[in-house]
């Protein structure tokens, strides 16, 4: 408890920005706790960190922390973060987004940030809904689930964020639920330390809108569901495809070394200068 209190006073704007706007039982508080524990262990100072977000429930996170912060427009957090990283590669840039923010209006930016392997850490809080704007279905809402924009059930199939990140070329991809809070902060720490584009998907819950609409119970019941369906990567390798239906694989999905965009950009810049007469 003493260590937790120390982190609260070290990293949170506890005397300025609280109480927070999140609903009782929301998973965003767990994600925020995991984030500050990961940053504390990583060894970076508060001045080293830039926390960038877009719009949505998760987008409020930079308001509560004592880092360099940037609260941007819907779906464009990665583009702002890219600009920050290119302007000052020394900074450790972390981008917090929701599932709709990152993969709907921001989907193209997400794919190409992964493809370029920009040295950013993308933390995506996936609660399967647009919580801030009324509970509309998002790209990750399960097939058949109810939403304010799908009163007879969603007929679109959900997008898998972590698998998309792997396919698009991210150097590191991890996934956890907010129930597995210790695993979550370990994955975030690994993503921060990784050189290249790192994606951590945090499977969360929205008891106020998504849970209530789909009669999933309150926060405790929704957390227990996460516990029940989560399967560690190592165990998943021993299971059949049929056994994995309805399950969520958690842990490190991929960890690979790839050319980092900022380093490659410096190489091209130096080569152009050496060619003579080119000023960049």
UniProtKB/TrEMBL annotation:
Its EC number is 1.2.7.3. Gene3D superfamilies: 3.40.50.970. One of its GO terms (molecular function) is thiamine pyrophosphate binding. Pfam families: TPP_enzyme_C. InterPro entries: 2-oxoacid:Fd_oxidoreductase, THDP-binding, TPP_enzyme_TPP-bd. Keywords: Oxidoreductase. Transmembrane segments: none annotated. The keyword Heme does not apply. One of its GO terms (biological process) is cellular respiration. Residues 60-201 form the Thiamine pyrophosphate enzyme TPP-binding domain. This is 2-oxoglutarate synthase.
